[in-house]
Amino acid sequence: MSDTIFGKIISGEIPTDFIYEDEHCVAINDIHPQAPVHVLVIPKKPIEKLSDAEPEDQALLGHLMLAAGKVAKQLGVGDAFRLIVNNGSGAGQTVFHLHLHILAGSTLAEARM
Ligand code: 5GP
Fold first, then answer.
1. Which of 14, 27, 55, 90 qualifies as a cystine partner to 20, CB 3.0-4.6 A?
2. What values do phi and psi take at 97, rounded to 5?
3. Contact by Cβ (8 Å): 80, 101
4. From the CB of 17, is ligand 1 less than 6 Å away?
């Protein structure tokens, strides 16, 4: 497991509520939400960032997208959500264990980027 905060969350070293878990990933609420709904989908495999993923990770990457859709449904945000991956420090990545941000909520349509 990675030595990052997410590695510690996944291993249970830092106790955190999982709002979703399956064989390959977990979803947790972001500690500093940037939208009314801000959830992180994190693979259990410690890939540092999206651009480090290998062809062997293809199924896992698809799995994360499908898991994000499932989590959004579970959260009741329907089809109104945004998925973000910050890749590398130059793009704002701060935790170097791949994760998808799910953002949703009433203010989302105004927050264009
Ligand atoms: P990044 O900037 O790497 O794309 O996103 C990292 C995200 O992880 C940030 O939105 C930050 O608020 C969140 N985060 C950092 N530390 C923790 C933590 O200990 N618990 C949770 N739930 N979220 C965290």
1. 27
2. -145, 115
3. no
4. no
Residue nearest to atom 18 of ligand 1 (CA): 31
Please tell me the pTM assigned to this model.
0.95
Domains annotated on the chain, with CATH: 5-110 (3.30.428.10)
Question: How high is the ipTM of this complex?
Answer: 0.99
The CA distance from 104 to 106, in Å, is: 7
CA nearest 76: which of 110, 106, 112?
106
Q: CA neighbours within 13 Å on the CB side: how many for 86? A: 14
Ligand 1 atom at minimal distance to the Cα of residue 99: 4
pLDDT (tens, 9 = 90+) of the chain, 113 residues, equals 679 999 999 999 999 999 999 999 999 999 999 999 999 999 999 999 999 999 999 999 999 999 999 999 999 998 999 999 999 999 999 999 999 999 999 766 666 55
Q: Ligand 1: which of 31, 38, 87, 98 to mutate, judged by most atoms within 8 Å of the beta carbon?
A: 31
